[in-house]
Specification:
The protein has 6 helices and no strands. The protein is an all-alpha fold.
Length: about 120
Amino acid sequence: MIQERNIVVSILLTIITCGIYGIFWFISLTDDAARSADVPDFSGGKAFLFTIITCGIYSFYWYYKMGKTLKEANDKAGINASDNSVLYLLLGIFGLGIVNYCIMQNELNAIARQNA
């Protein structure tokens, strides 16, 4: 089951903890999206590890992959949503990863409400 998270609280916790909560949020977003789209090989822990190993380069692939995974999850939940893969990639390139997290969390919250 996907846990619905308050986006404003998540942003504030990321700022207050100097990014530590952001790591948890990154892993949770990935795991929730993979679970809702039935993609067992897409894991938050692996994505975080690959991002560290590649000095952040993997994160660009992650943004694109999350867009595709969330589109698939929305389709499975019966929600008509657009594929935001390119948007996530562009925002990531311009350093707006936190905006990506917010949009992704909003999509996951909609899936959680649909499945409740």
